[in-house]
Structures are given as C-alpha cells and as structure tokens.
Write a structure and sequence with these properties.
Elements lengths: L7 H13 L2 H8 L3 H15 L4 E4 L2 E4 L1 H22 L9 E7 L1 H18 L3 E7 L13 E6 L6 E7 L2 E5 L2 H6 L12 E5 L5 H8 L9 E5 L2 H9 L5 E4 H10 L11 E2 L2 E7 L6 H24 L3
Parallel strand pairs: 3-4, 3-5, 8-9
Antiparallel strand pairs: 1-2, 5-12, 6-12, 7-10, 7-11
Helix pairs in contact: 1-2, 1-3, 1-4, 2-3, 5-9
C-alpha cells in the first residue's frame, strides 16, 4: 500500500516553528520569509485537518495534539540528516542565533569581536538586534539577551561575562593641550554628559573627594556612544566604562589621565530563556562571550591596574 505522507517542506516549517515558538525565528533558521513559514504551516494544518498553533500576537504556541506530533517527528529529521551524512553529505546545516543587546554595547564591544566568532563557527549565522528595553518587556524571544546585571527574571538563566567600572577618559591631543595632573584640573575642561546617566560625573567627583567643581563647560548628548565619540574627537572629558573603551585605550584613541578612583558599575550578563539554556549553539556563544570578557578584564587590570 502506498504510504500517504505530508509535504516535507511543510513538515520542516512546522518542526522549526514548533521548536522555536516563533514563525519569525523559524524563517531565519530556514532562510525563508515569515510568510513562507506561515503558508507552509497552513498547508500542513489543511492536510492534517486540524490546527497546530494558537496565535498570540507575535508568538505561537503549539496545541496539545501538535506538541505530541512534534515529539514524534522531530527525531526523524535528525535521523534523516544522519542517514544523508553517511553518504558523504554533511549533516550540519547553517544555524541562526538571535541576539539582542543595547546599541552602544553592540557598536563598541560586540561588533569588533563578532568576526572572530564567525570565523571560528562558519555554520552559525548571528542575527543581532539592538534595544534598551528590559528583558521582561521584549516582545520577541531571543536565544541570548545581553543586559546589565546581575538581575533575576523568571524563566531565564543569567550569567555575567564582562565586568565594568567607570573612569574619566579623553583624547591624547586634548590632554597635551590641557594637562590633567589631578582631578581638580577638570575645572579647565569641558565635561561630557549623557542624558540617561545624569549621576555618573557627580558620583565620580564625590568618590574622588572633589566638591563644588565648576568645569569650563559641559556638553550633553542623548546617546552614550555620541558622548564617547565626542571624547575621541577631543571635545571634552567623558566618564568611560572600561568595557566599552578598552579598544580605544589599547589603540591610543583615548587615554585615562588618572590612576583612580574607579566608579563601580553593573556587569554585562547574558539572559537566556530556560528552554534554550542547554542548546549547543547558545552554550557555545555564551562560553565565547565569557572568554572574551575574561581576556578584556585581564588586559584592563594589567594595563590600567587599580
């Protein structure tokens, strides 16, 4: 008797969407459009004569019957890949890893290092989206979310990977024009501020025991990466987080004029949904972040020790 099998492409779309809980993420993994995944799922639903997902805004949830169906068919795709590999065709296919991080962190820390990760893991496509929204407010589900911490969120595992402190930084050219021998010399300079971080300079000055300091001028920017760029361009002195200015310090684009003090700050942490914390690619990326963070921390301590 001829076997009656459902369309293979529809099964692939269903398996990916069911495993990831998202048509968008399934589309990214399969390298097709969201609409193509949705169309294939509707085709399979019509073929089976039953709904497979409950739609909730941007998320999709498997029905009870569909969950049982997925548990049965998911191992078959792995068996098919292994069987194909036995004929000399690699079983490993490209995998998409979705990451969400703040724009400043992405621009100044992650992007300069990401090519290193990609060169070591060519089969992993990294999709980075930027946002400053809190973890619990994100509308989409990501494999890895990078935020400050450590914080605790229900349904997520958290691991710190990059420590951070803040200290004044400026361009070498500015320092040669107006030397800074002690914190009181900041009176001769322009202090660079960021709207979202109004307490950074006052807190550092209080820690340095410099009170009632009136700088020559102040400049305030609405994004922190603009503040750092203004410092690089010699427009004034910024409070630089060690994690985000380490590359500029190493390259000589910025200098730290004082040995101390350093203002404590929150660490950068990875937040991963519990259901993805054991995923091989997520574990790999997290471990890579932690190695990179440790290397930077050692460099900061060695070159600009406390």
């Amino acid at each position: 008797m001829k076997q009656r099998l459902p369309p293979l492409n529809a099964l692939r779309a269903f398996e990916a969407a069911g495993r990831l809980g998202s048509f968008k993420e399934a589309a990214a993994q399969l390298h097709v459009t969201n609409g193509a995944v949705s169309q294939q799922v509707r085709l399979l639903e019509a073929w089976l004569g039953m709904p497979l997902f409950e739609r909730h805004n941007r998320r999709v949830v498997l029905t009870a019957d569909a969950r049982a169906y997925l548990e049965q068919i998911a191992p078959l795709f792995e068996q098919l890949a292994l069987a194909t590999a036995s004929y000399g065709v690699p079983a490993t296919v490209s995998r998409t890893l979705s990451v969400n991080a703040s724009a400043t962190f992405t621009l100044r820390w992650l992007v300069p290092r990401l090519e290193k990760f990609r060169s070591e893991h060519a089969n992993i496509d990294v999709r980075v989206e930027t946002s400053n929204e809190p973890v619990e407010s994100l509308k989409e589900t990501y494999d890895v979310i990078i935020r400050g911490g450590p914080d605790t969120f229900y349904g997520y595992s958290m691991r710190p990977f990059l420590s951070e402190e803040r200290l004044p930084v400026c361009s070498p050219a500015l320092l040669s024009r107006l030397p800074l021998r002690e914190p009181q010399d900041l009176r001769q300079h322009t202090l660079l501020h960021t709207t979202s971080l109004p307490r950074v300079w006052p807190d550092w000055l209080a820690t340095a025991q410099v009170y009632d300091l009136s700088p020559a001028a102040t400049l305030t920017f609405d994004h922190f990466y603009l503040t750092l760029q203004a410092a690089i361009d010699g427009m004034g002195i910024a409070m630089g987080p060690t994690s985000l200015v380490s590359d500029d310090l190493a390259a000589g684009r910025l200098v730290a004029p004082f040995n101390g003090p350093r203002l404590p700050s929150r660490s950068y942490c990875t937040y991963v949904p519990d259901e993805r914390s054991a995923d091989d690619v997520v574990v790999l990326f997290r471990s890579w972040l932690e190695r990179e963070g440790m290397q930077q921390d050692h460099w900061i301590r060695g070159s600009h020790g406390r």
